[in-house]
Specification:
Keywords: Signal. Residues 32-60, 353-394 are annotated as: Disordered. InterPro entries: AB_hydrolase_fold, Esterase-like, Mycobacterial_A85_antigen. It comes from Planobispora rosea. This is Acyl-CoA:diacylglycerol acyltransferase. This protein has ten helices and nine strands. The chain is an alpha/beta fold. The protein has one domain: Alpha/Beta hydrolase fold, catalytic domain (Rossmann fold), CATH 3.40.50. It has a nine-stranded mixed sheet, with helices on both faces. The chain starts with a helix and ends in a 22-residue tail after the last helix.
Length: 394
Amino acid sequence: MRSVRHGLLALATAAAVGLPSTAAHAAPVRPLAPAGENRQVLDPVPPTGKSPSGPWPAAMPGGARVVAEKWLGPRTLDILVSSPSVDAMLPVRLLLPPGWSKQAKRTWPVLYLLHGGVDDYTSWTRMTGIEELTEDVGAIVVMPEAGRAGNYSNWFNKGKGGPPAWETFHTYEVRRLLEVGYRAGTRRAVSGLSMGAYGAIKYAARHPGMFRFAGAHSGVMSTRLPGIPDIIMNAQAAEGFDPKALWGDPLKNADVWRANDPAHFARNLRGVSIYISSGTTSLQGELDPPGTPWHPAHLGEPVSAYTARHLIAKLRLYGVKPVVNLYRKGTHSWPYWEREFKRSFPMILKALGVKPSSSPEDAQEDAEKERDEQVPPPPGQPEGGEWNLPGSGD
């Protein structure tokens, strides 16, 4: 019986971290502005050693900062961040709104999109129509790198801590860099799929007030339920990591596991608009093309639903009423994630305080609203001087 259980856990391993991808990681780049744009040319990126956190160059000495930019189109900008928390040069993709510039007198609300496991920061633009969907939306869309199995966590590493410290990278380094140098405001929403779904709910729960909306599609929502620690550790081992490097031993380091369990922080999600979705059976559904072979990663759907029901019950206990769609048929795949994301999109726009398209009058209204809601950083966090952002004083 034990061998059967472990066999099922092995099949679910891919589901815990997401579907495989052939996407390549970004190398250091020199900035390239689209025609007609006057963008500052940053200094060439000096060579560094290999990052201990993954297949990226190691971080440069000093604080977190943007070291390179690459324009991929009129509104698509990749920035390369030297991150001491992950000890790596990490790419972040931005989709910029109409009228955006670094010199603008206003800021824009921000939508963070978190990728799944065994994938990278390009997945949202590679697999969905996010560029078209947000073309006329007055918000900055941010798609950060998170590692193939980073799990949106500051790793335990036998008590030594990071690198990698992915949570610090996303919720502090990237956030502050965008606020200081890229006109990001303080109205934020976050959404993710699979591993990124876990990250979205976790970040919203562990950082009260940071996000007004959290969307989670097919992710682990409660990490300490029976069987779930085994799945998570098997997933880490499948990517070549020490399975206990992430959060330690589930029993000996129960406090670390608890600190990374979104369900433990369910009460912190009061006041947050929430959308949770998942399949419940791993059976193919209406969005799976006929003849598509079944993949073990699709077991991620019943695993996700199992953990989602626990989180949903805790949310309702605290008076939180998430919008929930647990559908019977549907695989652990992009067509369902995109469908659910689009269904949640009106909630995202409402949370960000923006309209689907921005007339000049709408843009002015959004700008005034954003200025009215600016807040200083929490005590102990710098206003931006240490970041050494190229061009931040323009």
